[in-house]
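Summary for the funding panel

The consortium committed to producing paired sequence-structure records for every protein in the target list. Below we show the first two records in order, beginning with the earlier of the two.
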Amino acid sequence: LQHHFVGGLVRLANLRFASRPSLMDRLDTMCSEFLTRHVIDELDLLHDAFSKLIGLQPYLAVYQKRKASLEKVFAVYAAADKSLGAVSASSTMNIREMSEFCDECKLFAGGKVSQRDMINAFSRVNIEDDVYVQTDKANTSTELTYDEFFEVLARMHHAREGGEKRRKARSILEEDEGLDLARKFDAWIEGGLLPVAAEAIKARKKKTG
């Protein structure tokens, strides 16, 4: 549990930095000199190599080109969860809605992308929401904004192409800044995702009347 983890860190900081004048100073030293470097720099938990790819021109071009079409799909599934807790967050997508989108759009078909890939991508893009204060109150660690949805799709497509086992994002960055992978992503959106999503949305509208 989270509080046990935090309690352990406090005790460890108290022992490791006993020469510091106060418990607050000891914990601050632990976080600033050790944890921050390890979590942010060494583990790349906030900004991994794929996060950097998303910010480069090849993926930005796909983002701009497909934004209008993907936003329509996003809007449908962001409002899919009608449970009491989700109704007020109809402009963002929770994990249940993302899973529903993946099922109906057959993203898991063929076994190239798994539900685990989806959950990993969902969690990864939401890490910042737990660390930094968000200007958009709807942008929480349990909800996807449209930009985060786009990144989840990009990460799932990378998994579809073999993921880190086949080509590490760090290597892709060095080779061509993601140009080849972004082109494949764009082709998949156009020829694979959008046609299936259109049919899924039609079927959904018929079902709901």
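The next record, for a separate protein in the list, is shown here:
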Amino acid sequence: WHLLERRTFPGLGPSAAFYSIKQSSASRAVVGEMLNVSEERLLHPHFRRVELLHSNSCALWKEYFKRLFPEFTVLRDFEFYGDKDLSRLLLIGRDDRDMNPDIVLISSDTDDLQRRIVAVEIERNPKSKERLARKLAKYATEAHLDGVIYLCEGSTSFERIRNVYSSSVLQQALRIKHYGSHFVLFSNSSFKGFDHAPQMPFIVTGK
């Protein structure tokens, strides 16, 4: 137990708790030896306990996309904040944290015109239409993104995002006008293991 840290959820009382590996190098080295993994893989410097399930989903999907697209660099939100070039392309820092993607996939090209960047959003809880419209408008008209994949828990979230994008963003998104109907893709967020492919994505028209 000296290798673990007990953490509680704010506002839910002392019984609502979970355990995480202590982040000291010594603790991670011991646990890494037990699990036969490097201590670097156990480093989670920006773990947000108030979003435990969401953070867990992000970690799983990041690993899934790394295995699916080994030629791409796959980063979570806290990993690209310090990258000045990527922050410039994604407009990091111009607005609040909730306006940034959960995960990004980046091709190995060094030239901005050749580089491909795809954002991934894991949608566990419904967002307001205003917030969705702001985020989708940023992705489609301002940020240098080539597409967005929304992983949704159910059809309600899918329909909500699709309707906001189609009615409030698509017609004004001149940057991606030639493929606007394919800029946002959807799939089910249920993670069934690294050997199971997610459902085939839908395009925004629902076809």
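Regarding this second record: The two ends are 52 Å apart (CA to CA). Strands lie at 4-8, 17-21, 73-76, 103-106, 117-123, 147-152, 184-188.
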